[in-house]
Predict the 3D structure of the following.
Amino acid sequence: MYSFACDYLEGCHEDVLKALSRTNMVQAPGYGADPFTQKATEKIRQLCRDDAATVHFVTGGTQANQLVIDTVLQPYEGVVAALTGHVNVHEAGAIEFSGHKVLALPSARHDGKLAAADVDAFVKAFYADPNHEHMVFPGMVYVSHPTEYGTLYTAQELRELSEVCHKHHMPLYLDGARLGYGLAAYDTDVTLPLLDELCDVFYIGGTKVGALSGEAIVFPRGVEPKHFLTRIKQHGALSAKGRLIGVQFAALLENDLYFRIGRHAIDMAREIRKIFEEAGCSFFMDSPTNQQFVILENEAIQKLSDYVGFEFWEPYDENHAVVRFASSWATTPEGIEELRKAVALCLPRK
Amino acid sequence: MYSFACDYLEGCHEDVLKALSRTNMVQAPGYGADPFTQKATEKIRQLCRDDAATVHFVTGGTQANQLVIDTVLQPYEGVVAALTGHVNVHEAGAIEFSGHKVLALPSARHDGKLAAADVDAFVKAFYADPNHEHMVFPGMVYVSHPTEYGTLYTAQELRELSEVCHKHHMPLYLDGARLGYGLAAYDTDVTLPLLDELCDVFYIGGTKVGALSGEAIVFPRGVEPKHFLTRIKQHGALSAKGRLIGVQFAALLENDLYFRIGRHAIDMAREIRKIFEEAGCSFFMDSPTNQQFVILENEAIQKLSDYVGFEFWEPYDENHAVVRFASSWATTPEGIEELRKAVALCLPRK
Amino acid sequence: MYSFACDYLEGCHEDVLKALSRTNMVQAPGYGADPFTQKATEKIRQLCRDDAATVHFVTGGTQANQLVIDTVLQPYEGVVAALTGHVNVHEAGAIEFSGHKVLALPSARHDGKLAAADVDAFVKAFYADPNHEHMVFPGMVYVSHPTEYGTLYTAQELRELSEVCHKHHMPLYLDGARLGYGLAAYDTDVTLPLLDELCDVFYIGGTKVGALSGEAIVFPRGVEPKHFLTRIKQHGALSAKGRLIGVQFAALLENDLYFRIGRHAIDMAREIRKIFEEAGCSFFMDSPTNQQFVILENEAIQKLSDYVGFEFWEPYDENHAVVRFASSWATTPEGIEELRKAVALCLPRK
Amino acid sequence: MYSFACDYLEGCHEDVLKALSRTNMVQAPGYGADPFTQKATEKIRQLCRDDAATVHFVTGGTQANQLVIDTVLQPYEGVVAALTGHVNVHEAGAIEFSGHKVLALPSARHDGKLAAADVDAFVKAFYADPNHEHMVFPGMVYVSHPTEYGTLYTAQELRELSEVCHKHHMPLYLDGARLGYGLAAYDTDVTLPLLDELCDVFYIGGTKVGALSGEAIVFPRGVEPKHFLTRIKQHGALSAKGRLIGVQFAALLENDLYFRIGRHAIDMAREIRKIFEEAGCSFFMDSPTNQQFVILENEAIQKLSDYVGFEFWEPYDENHAVVRFASSWATTPEGIEELRKAVALCLPRK
């Protein structure tokens, strides 16, 4: 049975696998000092058009978030995030484990995005409060792009966020677990050089975009926390064989592979969307990326789950729930056909 | 200028001071092993009608909250609290500093109280979520009584909360920073034996109710975290001269002093209330305890502040703000008269 | 039965108690913003001859140590201390609880003191180690004065430590839990202005030197961690009634009281020493301050404990143990007489 | 230039790579719920002869240590380890970062091993100390096997350690970063079923023994900390594509591959040893595993480093230093020949 449950169902892109094979027996130093990691770093600098950027590779997204947030924040500071942000909801308290509060703002427009005006109002209210020295200082802003709901910021929205952040001396951090799918979306005006310009730190996600594991943390202009390597080690996040991630990123960033497979996923997601649209279904929100959130009757969900894999997201009303169908770099036309048949069978057009 | 800014403006009740003088040169062992602390403990057991209760004395409220929450929770758990709860807002991230998330529920009725039904719904939704193993487990419930807005739970409300907590195997913790003012309120049916029955841990506040410092943490039926003394020490909360707090609580709990001075503050608060009512003012909420939250015009606030002390609380609308007038065990009739005159002068009845 | 078990057996000096009485009903703002705290701060600045020094008052020694060390260190740093240092042994892991390692150096000369040369060698070896980025950086140095064994640094020793620290860009922190007894010792050349000159932070102990509670943390030249007040709150160490400690320190520092009662304790300790010397006993080490560590036969310890209070310190050999007799500001000549009789009875000169 | 600097210089064993290729496009659920991880778990259960063992796979050794120690310890406990233990020296404070102290015992016999008698004496002294409630409780024991110096425990030594641990109710944890090389040594009587019997938790190292990444944490008899998956997530250690490690371990444990490549490394290490013995060199200690610590003149080190890779370990005396030559599953006979020539050239037999 073909599954659309998430975007980490398969191993890695075959070019990544080939690169791992090709380099396998080359001796190289550990802890990221290998030439493959160096090559991947150079690629990222070129793509970001920032020669001074520093790059560190870690294994997974929660690890990257915990590490970046803990090292960028001062101990008396918390991270401002959307109420629905991954760091606030789905990281088992990894941020608090490292001592920091998530200052969760209700996502005004219910699309998982943080609005610059909301951040501005929150920070102003904080400093206006005569008791603010007894409170957690807003120390940085976290956004995910695409968001947890597959939505995207526009360049203008990010620019406004960046301006608000810098006005208040707060670094802007962008979680790019699915950045490849965000950059490859149609009609987006967000690019790597733009992120490099507007953010103070962001990560380019590998695990969900063609790699076996790995996320590339980028500090634009090389402004990174002191002794960051030691902090990585302290967080248990330093790979002895750093090459594993370096080789993968070097392969993903060769010849636009990362962007090409991103676009493939977007195209597959459009097919998914069309299938459900044609079945007359509604969507929880309008996602231009690889995750599609469909509202289905509970009974239909039950039926459909015998034919195709997907993920329950959240209850919608008494009779309906939101379910997620995710495409990825690995989604096949055959999979899409299976979905089409299953939907036709289980959700006959009324 | 007389001040109503808070309830910790003076030192301690004269009987407390006398007890400190009387016992001053008696030699006694440190770290809470002294006979005064033992006597205070016995008093609390009697008042709670719980011979098995264990009691530990610490210096302040945030310290008590951090210590209790950190030691009662498992590391994968967070504490459920009202959005307006002290631990969520005004403790500078002390809970997160010790590694735990505050799971903040919007206080449905905007009175600073947590409703049993809201807690129940939250916990049910948590366990119904297929991803809950990636989330922070709700591990205990925190309520303050009186709340940060001076409101009180009824015995019935606390009983429902206790039942919901225990249904879900979560300890119920009650922050009694101002418990003396809660117990002494008119028309309350909440008593110490009731708290002992319904809560798994609570503290009886001293600092704001007649002591120089000190809060008494009570574990009903003696069910306390293992090696609690070592945890107190580890939190930097163990007093070498534990007698300082022991002597004070022994004095406060002698001859109902704690309840008598609590009632005095309530009576003074009623006077405050009457003064503002007669001036035609509205209240932010209906508080039966020692804190009164009055809505005043910004201009009137400015004027009044030349004659009497009070605390700015939060903006209300463009032209109004909420201000707090707190009475305490120490409030004098002369102080009330000063307030009456100041209000008459600055807020002439329209 | 008179006790010499420790130096926190009584309440506070009568002048401190009088000051508490005198100021008791004066209204004053909370959290250290009161005039008494301001006065105590000014006194400390004068005594240190440092107008720019900032001072913060907390309740106890472990609290002060945890707070200072956690706020002064970077997260990748640990604190260098003697193996026998209080922070390494007797604080229940309070330093590690806040995320930092104690880098314990064997105290070369077995007297509880840290030698500048040992610190220098340790730090040099650290930076010479090609793997040091995988290790905890030495970030500050902790010394106690008097040490846990009652010994004292000379001005020259402290100067050397200070030079080594600053050569390696490490702040020097001095734990002065018993500083009053150190400053009042005969033949010491260490003074408050000297500490202010050589240390980057130190605290003047109150709890063990005449106060009910309280330690004064001093940052010479006002160089203190950012948002220190918020950090105090976050550690649960901010007193609502900061006046309690402010009033006490203002009284202790008035008319040299702190130094006079320190000297009294030293004189009493000399009496203790003489009593045991005359009984032919040996001392574990030569202490010029208020703690005397005597080596006694286990049998004699047993006997003596029926007549006078003291503290078991550690086993010495099969038949002997080290016990501690501490004098304090409160030790009475009558107490000394009881000790004299008890020793005469239990340890007859052979 | 061929390198013996460490045992993580190459990628992974070719059979591991083949398994990754073979399974690459199979869809499988995330977070360790995939069939490959299940298969690896079953293999480990068989090899340990423990059907009830639970197994969790994480990426690296420091991560495994931090996770296991933090989750097994109570918050008032520390981990007993050799002074030279990896957790005490080379993990950048990862243990303290999670709030726990490393209780470091001098390794009596200077071979990196912890003696049961030393642990017993330490724990007895702890509980005999009247102040032990103010100290960090010894909560578990950490040993590495092979140790950081390549030495091995005998079955008898481990059995004694296990007995002492359990007598004192402390779990025994064995860090098996290089376990493959320990199990494959000649003359060892330590086996996986023995570890399963004697330890309460241990990990089987992959990263240094043929895998690209991955360590298998084993809880014998299924006694594991509650909600361990959530704790893994909270530590940032849960892999979305858990399959990456599952596939690798399934391959490594197929047909004794893990043991065969371990033996290969041991044989290569013996060759290394012979080369230096024949050159008349001394060894820092007698290592039966893949790491050989040779004492060389500083001048010879300089020379040799032009011909072959190795790692500087620590200074020995003014003219000598200890250097490490590590073999691994990947060491080639050609590499050994290069070393032989280099040694002949640079260290001519006197």
